Every structure is written in structure tokens, then in C-alpha cells.
């Protein structure tokens, strides 16, 4: 099987939704792991002070660990704070610690506070078309539309919105889309919502299929064809410091994330 082709230049994709618990982190880490397994060079930037992506990757994120905080607040180069993700070749992480919780406040007085992450990416020799580039930079956002998420939106070209197949799935989506539109208009003209990913889909319930149908009616082809099933193995994996891609590669959750990763890669070929 030929290796998956690399994109011509780094794709920067943010996983955003101001609702908590919809699958932002789970989707980020598993798609990142899947892309790495497909031979891509991948960087995950953890922008959530909770550091859940770090947990899934078994990477330290105790207070004081250099990471996203140093990049945003102190202007540290990304290369200085990236760490390899154990057991997943080709995958690196910028860790987030609880220090990041203070960053929103600390940056309020700073000029260009919305552009901190964009500037860091622009300065990195591994973002762009160089041979040793990251093919994908995936950014995991906190559950809010504050300055951290805005930094991610300004730094990205593509927004992936995970949507939990639940009753209130579409609630709050308008606000998120409005924020994306504001960032696009004021700060980042190349930003677009490229994909919506249905997560925690339970094929046995009518509700899940109704929600999926409704999302598709509203958003058409932006909705990814791959749905991520609700699966215990997916939720267990982080407690073993793993993604489901290594924890149980043959499980339905892992296979779906592999499909989602391939679909995402295909989008980039257009
Ligand atoms: P967010 O980052 O949006 O807050 P998470 O990715 O942390 O959401 O997911 C919220 C919870 O749902 C976590 O406990 C996670 O393990 C669980 N979860 C996410 N996706 C699935 C899935 N496909 N099947 C079962 N549980 C899931
Ligand atoms: Mg999260």
C-alpha cells in the first residue's frame, strides 16, 4: 500500500466548539494519531488549560512544564516547547498546563494578543513547505470562545467542529459560527469551516440519526461522511495514557477515526 501523500504545505486545523464534552479533544488526538500512523508529520497544540490532550498522549503537563503558555505569553518558539508523543512516531505535542488559565488575563493588555499563536506558527521553520515541515497542525481548544480559542481561529485556515449527536447538538452553534465569521472578517480572511464531525453517534437510537440528518440539512457537504460511534473503548483509552488508535486499533472507534483522518486528508487534495 503506497503511503498517503503529504499535503504540499502545512495544514493548520482547529477543533473548536464552545460546548464542553462534545469530543473536541478526543477527535483531535485520535485524528492526529491516525494521521501519524498514515505516515504524516503531525503537531498537536493543546490550548486547553485542562491539558486533556496531554493526558491522552501520556505527556507531562504539571504546572511549569514549558508549552503553550510560554508560546503565547512569553513568545517562546514552538520548536523550543514541542515534545515527542511516546509510541506514536511522527507525532509531536505542545503541552498545556494550568498556567494557561491565566494567559487570557495576562494577555488582555498586550498588543496583538489575538495573533500570538499565528505569529509563533509563522516564525516556525517547520510550518510551510519545507521538507521537514509538519504536514498537519491540529489545535485543541478549550470549551469557550475566549482569547485562547480566538488565537486558534486566527492561526488556522480550517475549522473542524465536532458535534455530539445529542438533542442540543445545534444549540450554540450559531454563536460559534458568528465568532468564526468575525475572526474571518477582521483578522483571518482565509479561515473557513471545513468540516463538521458527528461524534458519539449511537446507531441504535432514532435521536442520533435525526440529529445527524438535521446537521446535514443545515450544513450539507461540510458534514463529514464518517460518523464517530459512541464506544466505550474510545472513552477508556485516555485513562491508559493512550489514544484508541493504539489502545484498540481494530475497534469501531479506532476504525472510524482512521476513516475520518483519511477523509480530512482527501479534503486537502481539492
Ligand atoms: P471536549 O474536548 O469537547 O470537552 P472530550 O473529547 O473530552 O470533549 O469528550 C468528552 C467525554 O466524552 C470524554 O470523557 C470522552 O472520553 C468521551 N467521549 C468522546 N468521544 C467518545 C466516543 N466516541 N465514545 C464514547 N465516549 C466518548
Ligand atoms: Mg477538550
UniProtKB/TrEMBL annotation:
Name the chain's protein.
Chromosome partitioning protein
Which section of the whole protein is represented? 61 to 330 of 330
Residue span(s) of domain AAA: 11-193
Question: Which segments cross the bilayer?
Answer: none
Report the coiled-coil segments: none
